[in-house]
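Regression test attached.
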Amino acid sequence: MNIGEVAQAAGLPAKTIRYYEDIGLIAPLRDANGYRRFTEAHLHKLAFLARARGLGFSIEQCRTLLALYEDRARASADVKAVAQTHLAEIDAKMAELAEMRRVLADLVRACAGDHRPDCPILRGLAQPIATD
Amino acid sequence: MNIGEVAQAAGLPAKTIRYYEDIGLIAPLRDANGYRRFTEAHLHKLAFLARARGLGFSIEQCRTLLALYEDRARASADVKAVAQTHLAEIDAKMAELAEMRRVLADLVRACAGDHRPDCPILRGLAQPIATD
DNA sequence: CCTTGACCTTCCTGTTACAGGAAGCCCTAT
DNA sequence: ATAGGGCTTCCTGTAACAGGAAGGTCAAGG
């Protein structure tokens, strides 16, 4: 397969696949004309990467997961550890967003949103934010 | 005030304040020796920026908010529109994270996490992710 | 045989919001 | 005189690509 075909099949832009090669996540073969040549195994790895990225794993976490994926002697505990770390990261981000949302929603609720200049949102931003 | 003092007072790193000057968010005066000189008004703007950034507004949104903040003739509706846009962005991110979390938590739950190589997490990543 | 169009290649720049660090000036205290 | 902080500018790096330029390749059609 050429890059266009494997991109289609893996659900990744060709640009992304070239980038993954750049950073050593994947190593396609090369045709005589210089075109990248992908095997089924490459496709599986790319689809794996697409899904891991879709779950929010960082590139470095993907690199680790991919190594474990290819290691027949891995311990599932190692995989689980990576996943749990990421789960904790997600929870942290969600908590941060929830807190922002809470404060912001309060401000929005208090704002009339009309033609007048008085605005609780701006007043709220001009003063220390209540953390209670 | 010099940059160190205003940084302390506004709760922003000096680096960040220099960056804000670079991109035209703030325009401190200069002393004869080249040092930046900040007034109380500058401090208020910086504190405003710190809080807006803390609520997750982008730099460009902050630029808009700051302009409205300084415009005595603004309509609160304009401010509210920016805030509601951002609120929608937060909701979108939270939904995305929640979906990731849901799938990932299922995989983690199914994984024994022991010394054996069999791992539902890797199996899940190797197959299309169930969206039901 | 030539051209056209769809692919492919590499390389360079831009994105977001700064952080880290080098090289060097300024100011105060000892 | 020197030591220490604080200040300056400038350059590089971050994450994960996207966009686009310049140019090679390939199959089909005239």
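Expected vs. actual: identical. The CA atoms of residues 112 and 121 of chain A lie 10 Å apart.
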